TrEMBL record:
GO biological process, one term: methylation
Signal peptide: none
Region (Disordered): 1-29
One Pfam entry name: Methyltransf_25
Organism: Roseateles aquae
Protein name stated in the entry: Methyltransferase domain-containing protein
Keywords linked to the UniProt accession: Methyltransferase, Transferase
Cell membrane keyword on record: no
Length: 230
């Protein structure tokens, strides 16, 4: 489903030569659909405490007017306003989301703002087909997507220009001497991710496919912020 699609002014890139990678398996997709269909209506409120971290992540993308940026697992589109503002009217924002109930809220956001250069796709990020490669990609609280070890390198190669900036933010286990942070991570993760696997280093598969420039902790070590380049 494309909700908004107008040609950007940046020159189209040559078509990506890698085909789409495999998507999350059926049971995982079902679990994610269930999880996020149930949360869609209250999602924006629940994420409000992370607004500053979101701003920091988007600033770390170092976007310029006219650039193309991907918001992978874009959810209800909470990052879209700042991404759109950073790339301007000549740039392009592409949001990819697999849960229709979440995407419909992103669609409303785009329609209300009247952005003609924000495109939304209902797809698993691993399978999305893009008309152009992007200058940057954001993974904001997309734990389950980042655990797709075999699909991530193909996704990055297919979707991003060489040197493209990538920023990821998410929950992670804090060191054992921070039990309150870990209690928060456990509660939040049980509520919001399909599997607790990989929470010690949720960034590891992404980091393996990038040149990582910075990996920092946030939120009393309950979250990480990774910056790197393809
Ligand atoms: C915690 S929400 C984050 C939403 C958004 N990035 C934000 O900043 O608010 C995670 C989102 O990723 C989506 N998601 C999970 N795996 C995905 C995948 N493989 N492809 C596309 N979307 C995915 C979920 O449906 C959910 O909407």
């Amino acid at each position: 489903m494309r909700t908004s699609s107008s040609p950007g002014h940046s020159p189209p890139d040559s078509p990506p030569d890698n085909g789409p990678a495999s998507s999350p398996d059926g049971p995982l997709q079902d679990k994610l659909q269930q999880l996020y269909s149930a949360r869609a209506a209250r999602y924006d409120l629940e994420l409000a405490p992370f607004a500053t971290l979101r701003d920091e992540a988007i600033a770390a993308l170092q976007l310029q007017p006219g650039r193309t940026v991907l918001d992978l697992g874009c959810g209800t589109g909470l990052s879209l306003p700042a991404l759109r503002q950073a790339v301007g009217s000549r740039g392009r924002v592409i949001g990819v989301e697999l849960c229709p109930a979440m995407l419909v809220r992103a669609q409303q956001r785009v329609a209300e703002a009247g952005w003609r250069n924000v495109e939304l796709q209902l797809a698993s990020a691993e399978q999305t087909v893009l008309k152009r490669t992007a200058d940057a990609a954001l993974f904001f609280f997309t734990h389950d997507l980042l655990q797709q070890a075999s699909a991530l390198p193909a996704l990055l190669a297919r979707a991003l220009k060489p040197g493209a900036r990538v920023v990821a933010v998410g929950l992670c286990w804090a060191p054992p001497w921070q039990p309150w942070s870990n209690a928060f991570v456990l509660g939040a993760a049980l509520y919001s991710v399909a599997s607790l696997d990989g929470l010690a280093q949720p960034w590891r598969h992404l980091a393996a496919a990038l040149r990582v420039s910075q990996l920092e902790r946030r939120c009393l070590d309950a979250a990480y912020l990774l910056q790197g380049c393809r």
